UniProtKB/TrEMBL annotation:
This is Uncharacterized protein. The chain crosses the membrane at residues 6-31. The lineage of its organism: Eukaryota, Fungi, Dikarya, Ascomycota, Pezizomycotina. Keywords: Membrane, Transmembrane, Transmembrane helix.
Amino acid sequence: MGALGNIVPLVILLGFTAFGAYIGIQLYVWVNELADRGIKKMEKKNVVFSKDGMKVGVKEVRDEDIADKTQSLFVKAWSYTSFPAYKSRLGWKTTADDAPAQYLHRRDKRR
């Protein structure tokens, strides 16, 4: 029984060491998967990590796309503006009923 009594603590020590190694390996695998997911997510946003450091890429935007967006914003801004108390002296934004008589005569002469 004396030899068996010396082996039991060794088996317990090896069991704890194996359990600790298993936990360590699982943490290592989990951390690497987490880092890979983070890298893939950042690459979608054009951020690349390399040995030289972090590089941020800029998506290519064509001049035509910029012009389209700018024009669209100007058109929307123009459409949403209104001047309710404004009466044009030139006859703009008036109906035939609102226009002065002198402008109506000019329109009639053109026809």
